[in-house]
Model the fold of this input.
Amino acid sequence: MKLVAGILSLIICLAVPLSTYAIALVKREVILDAQEYGIKNKQMALTDFLQPWLVYEEQATILNETTERAYLYTPYLLLANDARDKARSKQTVQLADSEKILSDYAGCLVFSITLNGNSEKFADGMQVVIKQDKKLIKPYHSVINPALKTPWFPDQPQYAAHSYFYFRDQDLILTKPIILVATTKDKYEHRFNFNLANFK
Done:
Protein backbone atom coordinates (compact mmCIF):
# COMPACT_ATOMS: atom_id res chain seq x y z
CA MET A 1 0.00 0.00 0.00
CA LYS A 2 2.91 2.31 0.82
CA LEU A 3 4.42 1.69 -2.62
CA VAL A 4 1.14 2.46 -4.39
CA ALA A 5 0.73 5.68 -2.43
CA GLY A 6 4.28 6.62 -3.30
CA ILE A 7 3.70 5.89 -6.95
CA LEU A 8 0.57 8.03 -7.12
CA SER A 9 2.18 10.89 -5.23
CA LEU A 10 5.38 10.82 -7.29
CA ILE A 11 4.02 10.24 -10.77
CA ILE A 12 3.59 13.60 -12.45
CA CYS A 13 2.39 12.36 -15.79
CA LEU A 14 2.02 9.30 -17.99
CA ALA A 15 2.20 8.68 -21.68
CA VAL A 16 -0.93 9.01 -23.77
CA PRO A 17 0.53 9.31 -27.28
CA LEU A 18 -1.45 8.98 -30.47
CA SER A 19 -0.57 5.50 -31.68
CA THR A 20 -2.19 2.18 -32.45
CA TYR A 21 0.21 0.37 -30.13
CA ALA A 22 -0.13 -0.67 -26.49
CA ILE A 23 0.90 2.72 -25.13
CA ALA A 24 -1.82 4.52 -26.98
CA LEU A 25 -4.64 7.00 -26.70
CA VAL A 26 -6.86 5.58 -23.98
CA LYS A 27 -10.44 5.02 -25.08
CA ARG A 28 -13.43 4.45 -22.85
CA GLU A 29 -13.34 0.65 -23.28
CA VAL A 30 -9.67 0.59 -22.27
CA ILE A 31 -10.44 2.66 -19.17
CA LEU A 32 -13.20 0.23 -18.20
CA ASP A 33 -10.92 -2.74 -18.82
CA ALA A 34 -8.18 -1.22 -16.62
CA GLN A 35 -10.71 -0.53 -13.88
CA GLU A 36 -11.98 -4.12 -14.11
CA TYR A 37 -8.42 -5.46 -13.91
CA GLY A 38 -7.78 -3.41 -10.76
CA ILE A 39 -11.05 -4.41 -9.07
CA LYS A 40 -10.79 -8.08 -10.04
CA ASN A 41 -7.23 -8.31 -8.71
CA LYS A 42 -7.62 -6.16 -5.59
CA GLN A 43 -6.49 -9.01 -3.30
CA MET A 44 -3.48 -9.90 -5.44
CA ALA A 45 -0.07 -9.14 -3.93
CA LEU A 46 1.24 -5.88 -5.35
CA THR A 47 4.32 -7.55 -6.84
CA ASP A 48 2.08 -9.97 -8.74
CA PHE A 49 -0.29 -7.17 -9.76
CA LEU A 50 2.59 -5.16 -11.28
CA GLN A 51 4.25 -8.18 -12.95
CA PRO A 52 3.08 -7.43 -16.55
CA TRP A 53 4.87 -4.04 -16.41
CA LEU A 54 8.12 -5.39 -14.96
CA VAL A 55 11.53 -5.75 -16.60
CA TYR A 56 14.52 -7.28 -14.80
CA GLU A 57 18.07 -5.99 -15.18
CA GLU A 58 19.50 -7.56 -18.34
CA GLN A 59 22.47 -9.26 -16.59
CA ALA A 60 20.33 -10.82 -13.83
CA THR A 61 21.10 -14.50 -13.27
CA ILE A 62 18.38 -15.11 -10.66
CA LEU A 63 14.88 -13.67 -10.91
CA ASN A 64 13.42 -13.17 -7.45
CA GLU A 65 12.58 -10.41 -4.97
CA THR A 66 16.28 -9.43 -4.70
CA THR A 67 16.74 -8.87 -8.45
CA GLU A 68 17.14 -5.32 -9.77
CA ARG A 69 14.02 -4.27 -11.65
CA ALA A 70 12.23 -1.47 -13.45
CA TYR A 71 8.54 -0.81 -14.02
CA LEU A 72 6.91 1.15 -16.83
CA TYR A 73 3.82 3.02 -15.63
CA THR A 74 1.53 3.04 -18.64
CA PRO A 75 -1.87 4.80 -18.54
CA TYR A 76 -3.49 1.36 -18.20
CA LEU A 77 -1.41 0.49 -15.14
CA LEU A 78 -2.05 3.85 -13.50
CA LEU A 79 -5.81 3.41 -13.93
CA ALA A 80 -5.72 -0.22 -12.78
CA ASN A 81 -3.67 0.75 -9.73
CA ASP A 82 -6.14 3.48 -8.83
CA ALA A 83 -9.08 1.06 -9.21
CA ARG A 84 -7.28 -1.53 -7.07
CA ASP A 85 -6.68 1.03 -4.30
CA LYS A 86 -10.29 2.20 -4.37
CA ALA A 87 -11.64 -1.36 -4.37
CA ARG A 88 -9.41 -2.32 -1.44
CA SER A 89 -10.71 0.66 0.57
CA LYS A 90 -14.31 -0.02 -0.51
CA GLN A 91 -14.63 3.18 -2.55
CA THR A 92 -16.54 3.44 -5.81
CA VAL A 93 -14.45 3.35 -8.98
CA GLN A 94 -15.73 6.16 -11.22
CA LEU A 95 -15.13 6.71 -14.92
CA ALA A 96 -14.70 10.45 -14.29
CA ASP A 97 -11.87 9.78 -11.81
CA SER A 98 -10.00 7.71 -14.37
CA GLU A 99 -10.48 10.34 -17.06
CA LYS A 100 -9.07 12.98 -14.70
CA ILE A 101 -6.04 10.79 -13.95
CA LEU A 102 -5.36 10.47 -17.68
CA SER A 103 -5.71 14.20 -18.14
CA ASP A 104 -3.45 14.99 -15.21
CA TYR A 105 -0.75 12.50 -16.21
CA ALA A 106 -0.72 12.86 -19.99
CA GLY A 107 2.44 13.51 -21.99
CA CYS A 108 5.26 11.52 -20.43
CA LEU A 109 6.61 8.07 -19.65
CA VAL A 110 7.36 7.21 -16.04
CA PHE A 111 9.72 4.48 -14.90
CA SER A 112 10.51 3.28 -11.41
CA ILE A 113 13.81 1.53 -10.85
CA THR A 114 14.97 -0.58 -7.91
CA LEU A 115 18.75 -0.96 -7.69
CA ASN A 116 20.88 -2.84 -5.17
CA GLY A 117 24.13 -1.80 -3.53
CA ASN A 118 26.40 -2.34 -0.55
CA SER A 119 26.41 1.15 0.94
CA GLU A 120 23.84 3.77 1.88
CA LYS A 121 25.32 6.18 -0.66
CA PHE A 122 25.56 3.86 -3.67
CA ALA A 123 22.68 5.57 -5.53
CA ASP A 124 23.75 9.16 -4.82
CA GLY A 125 24.18 11.05 -8.08
CA MET A 126 22.72 8.23 -10.16
CA GLN A 127 22.43 9.15 -13.85
CA VAL A 128 19.64 7.69 -15.99
CA VAL A 129 19.11 7.88 -19.74
CA ILE A 130 17.06 6.11 -22.36
CA LYS A 131 18.93 4.76 -25.36
CA GLN A 132 16.90 4.39 -28.54
CA ASP A 133 18.70 3.74 -31.80
CA LYS A 134 21.63 6.20 -31.61
CA LYS A 135 19.75 8.71 -29.50
CA LEU A 136 20.25 9.41 -25.78
CA ILE A 137 17.26 10.87 -23.96
CA LYS A 138 17.57 12.37 -20.48
CA PRO A 139 14.68 12.54 -18.02
CA TYR A 140 13.18 15.95 -17.42
CA HIS A 141 12.51 15.04 -13.78
CA SER A 142 13.97 12.51 -11.34
CA VAL A 143 13.16 11.42 -7.80
CA ILE A 144 16.13 9.50 -6.40
CA ASN A 145 15.28 8.20 -2.95
CA PRO A 146 17.92 7.34 -0.33
CA ALA A 147 19.00 3.72 -0.25
CA LEU A 148 17.50 1.70 2.60
CA LYS A 149 18.62 -1.49 4.29
CA THR A 150 16.99 -4.56 2.74
CA PRO A 151 15.26 -7.30 4.75
CA TRP A 152 18.30 -9.47 3.95
CA PHE A 153 20.85 -7.13 5.58
CA PRO A 154 23.71 -7.89 6.30
CA ASP A 155 23.46 -10.48 3.51
CA GLN A 156 23.41 -9.39 -0.14
CA PRO A 157 21.85 -7.18 -1.32
CA GLN A 158 22.40 -4.97 1.71
CA TYR A 159 20.75 -1.80 0.38
CA ALA A 160 18.10 -1.00 -2.21
CA ALA A 161 17.17 2.35 -3.75
CA HIS A 162 13.75 3.00 -5.33
CA SER A 163 13.77 5.90 -7.79
CA TYR A 164 11.44 7.44 -10.39
CA PHE A 165 12.32 8.96 -13.76
CA TYR A 166 10.07 11.01 -16.06
CA PHE A 167 10.61 11.30 -19.83
CA ARG A 168 8.65 13.27 -22.41
CA ASP A 169 6.92 10.85 -24.76
CA GLN A 170 7.52 13.19 -27.71
CA ASP A 171 11.27 12.52 -27.39
CA LEU A 172 10.77 8.81 -28.10
CA ILE A 173 9.56 6.61 -30.94
CA LEU A 174 6.93 4.65 -29.05
CA THR A 175 6.87 1.75 -31.52
CA LYS A 176 10.57 0.94 -31.03
CA PRO A 177 12.42 -0.78 -28.18
CA ILE A 178 14.41 1.24 -25.67
CA ILE A 179 17.14 0.55 -23.13
CA LEU A 180 16.79 2.31 -19.80
CA VAL A 181 20.31 2.76 -18.40
CA ALA A 182 21.05 3.73 -14.80
CA THR A 183 24.69 4.51 -14.00
CA THR A 184 25.58 4.43 -10.32
CA LYS A 185 28.47 5.96 -8.36
CA ASP A 186 30.73 2.99 -9.12
CA LYS A 187 30.26 3.70 -12.87
CA TYR A 188 28.36 0.42 -13.29
CA GLU A 189 25.55 0.48 -15.88
CA HIS A 190 22.30 -1.19 -14.86
CA ARG A 191 20.36 -1.85 -18.09
CA PHE A 192 16.65 -2.57 -18.59
CA ASN A 193 15.25 -3.48 -22.01
CA PHE A 194 11.69 -2.37 -22.78
CA ASN A 195 9.82 -3.12 -25.99
CA LEU A 196 7.30 -0.30 -25.57
CA ALA A 197 4.81 -1.77 -28.04
CA ASN A 198 4.36 -4.85 -25.82
CA PHE A 199 3.07 -3.06 -22.72
CA LYS A 200 -0.64 -2.69 -22.02
Summary: Residues 1-22 have pLDDT under 50 and may be disordered. The first strand starts at residue 54 and ends at 56. The two ends are 22 Å apart (CA to CA). The CA atoms of residues 23 and 200 lie 6 Å apart.
